[in-house]
C-alpha cells in the first residue's frame, strides 16, 4: 500500500512540472524581422566596396599609376635623299629606354644593348619566300617575289646628344642580306656553293622605321608624312679628287663637319664595316679619326719573342684603314685616308674602300 502511494505521488509531481515547450516547437512559425533602431540606418550592400571620399583621391592616384612613354615635346625629321635622322627635344638617358621599348613593340629582340654609348642593334630577322608563301607582315610586303629565296634584315640604332645637351639625335641604319645559290655546271668541278651576301642599302626601310618611331612617340601619321615630304627637297653632294703631287685621293662632302661625320658612321654601318675606334675631335686641329677594318685580307707577320728563333709566321687579317675627317671650309668637309706614318694611303685596297664610300655619299 505504501509503495503504491509513493509511486502515485511521484507521477503527480512530474505532471505538474511539465510544460508545453514541445508543442510550441512543433508549432513554430515565422515572425517579423527585428526593426532597426531609430538612430541607425540600413546598410547599402551596393556601396560596401566604395572608397570613402576623404581618401579616394590618394588611392586613385596609386591605382591609376601605369607606365607611360617619356614626354616628347618636339620631334623633327632631318636629312635628305638617303640619309635621315630624328632630332628630339630631350636627353639621351630619358629617351634610350623609350626607343628600346619601340623595338620590342615592333617584335624585334636586341642582340646589342649598350645604353652607355647609345647603341642598340636588333637580331637578324629572316624571311623565306616562295610561290606558296603568303605575306606575313611588314617585311613580307617590302620583299615580294615568286622565286624561292631567303633574306635577312637587321637594324642598328645610334642615340647621341647634339652640341645642345637637351636635343637628342636618333639614327637608324639598315642592313640586309640575301641567300645566293651557285649551281654546279658541267664546265666546272666546283661544288655547289651557297652563302649569305649583303644587299644594297635600302634607305626606304630606314625612313619607314623612323616614321614608325615618330608615331610611337606621339605624332600623327599626317604630321609624319608632311615632314618626310619636306626634307626630301634638299640633296647632299660629294666629289672625289686626286692630288697627284702628294699621291693622295680624297673626298669632299658638301656639308658641315658634324653632319658629314654622322653620315660617314651611318654608311659604315650600312656597309657592315667594323669600326675599331671613332674620335670626332683629336688634338688641336679638331680632326676626326675613324679606324675601320675593310673587307680586304692582307698578310700580317706575327711578332713576338719566339719569332726570332722559330722564324716569322704570317696570317691573313682584314686590312685596317684610318679615315681623317677635317673641315675644309665652313660648309665643306674633307675625308681622306692615312697610313700608320700619317701619310696619304694610296694602296689599291684603300682607294677601292674610299670609292665605295664615295658611291654611298655622293
Describe the structure in your own words.
Mean pLDDT is 75; it is low at 21-26, 39-68, 130-137, 143-148 and 183-192. With 362 residues, the protein is of the alpha+beta class. It contains ten helices and 14 strands. It folds into two domains: 68-234, 2-Layer Sandwich (Alpha-D-Glucose-1,6-Bisphosphate, Chain A, domain 4), CATH 3.30.530.50; 236-362, Outer membrane protein assembly factor BamC (TATA-Binding Protein). It is globular. The strands form two sheets. Strands 1, 2, 3, 4, 5, 6, 7 and 8 form an eight-stranded antiparallel sheet that branches. 30% of the residues lie in helices and 33% in strands. Helix 6 runs antiparallel to helix 7.
**The number of domains:** 2
As an assembly, this protein is single chain
Query: What is the second-level CATH architecture of the largest domain?
Result: 2-Layer Sandwich
Structural class: alpha+beta
Tell me the total number of β-strands.
14
Uncertain spans: 21-26, 39-68, 130-137, 143-148, 183-192
Largest sheet: 8 strands, antiparallel
Radius of gyration: 40 Å
Characteristics:
362 residues; 10 helices; eight-stranded antiparallel beta sheet; TATA-Binding Protein; six-stranded antiparallel beta sheet; Alpha-D-Glucose-1,6-Bisphosphate, Chain A, domain 4; alpha+beta
Concise structural overview:
The protein is an alpha+beta fold. It folds into two domains: 167 residues, Alpha-D-Glucose-1,6-Bisphosphate, Chain A, domain 4 (2-Layer Sandwich); 127 residues, Outer membrane protein assembly factor BamC (TATA-Binding Protein, 2-Layer Sandwich), CATH 3.30.310.
